[in-house]
Amino acid sequence: MDTETLHEKYKRKRRLESRKILLFQLLLLILIFLFWQITTHYRILDPLIFSSPLAVAKLLVTKVMDATLFPHVWFTLMETVIGFLLGTLLGTLLAIFLWSSITVAKVMDPYLVVLNAMPKVALGPMILVIFGPNVLSVIVMAISISVIVSTIVIFSSFQQVNENYLKVMQLFNASKAQTFKHVVLPASIPTIISTLKVNVGLSWVGVIVGEFLVSSKGLGYLIISGFQIFNFNLVFLSLIMIVILATIMYKCVEMIERVLLKKFNF
């Protein structure tokens, strides 16, 4: 059997494995929804509190027909994408700044540890006072939750680049900027992409918490509204929309990961 045939056989086996895993994942999802529907239908779980898949589906159809859901979805998605991009960009720039100066990195180290340990949600009231009850506060909340984590993780990856590569650049009298461009940044691409994946979840947390505090629009606002009027169908519909959108966003980052890793030969 030649090499090409073996490779094709290996690829076919991988495809079959992927389809089998996807099938089991779908079956598990169906079982979860069936369990939810049956337990609430026979009142094992209180349908007033736990709603039910059918009730949520009916509400979804109603909201789609009267076009009252999509403005909230769009608003939250817009805030999350902006918070995600700015949080990641700012974290990367701060990591580059720390890498460029060992002295600055050492000075900032304890402050980064403290900021990372501090629960960012506690900053919510202060952000509200500084930026006002508007969309800017929500985006700042999303950025505040992701930026420190991004900075620490990316800066650590910059420091872990193979020293032999750096010594080669020094032998050729490369400047710090050239070393960063040709060695440090390409070697840190996998870590930066991993940070993007983490930031997807963090950005959603920041935006939903921000909408709890200040917003009059968005999925976070719908969740709070649902709780206030005991409309748990609305709460669960909002939660399911958040899960779907966060998953789509995560899959988009995975597609970017595959393209970049292929481009940089990882």
Topology:
Elements: H1 3-41, H2 47-50, H3 53-65, H4 70-100, H5 102-117, H6 124-131, H7 135-159, H8 163-171, H9 176-187, H10 189-213, H11 219-228, H12 232-263
Helix pairs in contact: 3-12, 4-5, 4-7, 4-10, 4-11, 6-7, 7-10, 8-9, 10-11, 10-12, 11-12
Description:
The protein is mainly α. It contains twelve helices and no strands. Helix 11 packs antiparallel against helix 12. The model has no long low-confidence stretch (mean pLDDT 89).
Task: Quickly give the structural class.
Answer: mainly alpha
The largest sheet, given as strand count, sense and whether it forms a barrel, is:
none
Shape: flat
Give helix and strand order, one letter per element, not per position: HHHHHHHHHHHH
Q: Tell me how many strands there are.
A: 0
Ranges where pLDDT stays below 50 over 5 or more residues in a row are none
Strand content: under 5%
- Helix fraction? over 70%
Distance between the termini: 29 Å
Quick tags:
mainly alpha, 266 residues, flat
What is this entry, summarized?
The protein is mainly α and about 270 residues long. The chain contains twelve helices and no strands. Helix 4 (about 70-100) runs antiparallel to helix 5 (about 100-115) and helix 10 packs parallel to helix 11 (about 220-230).
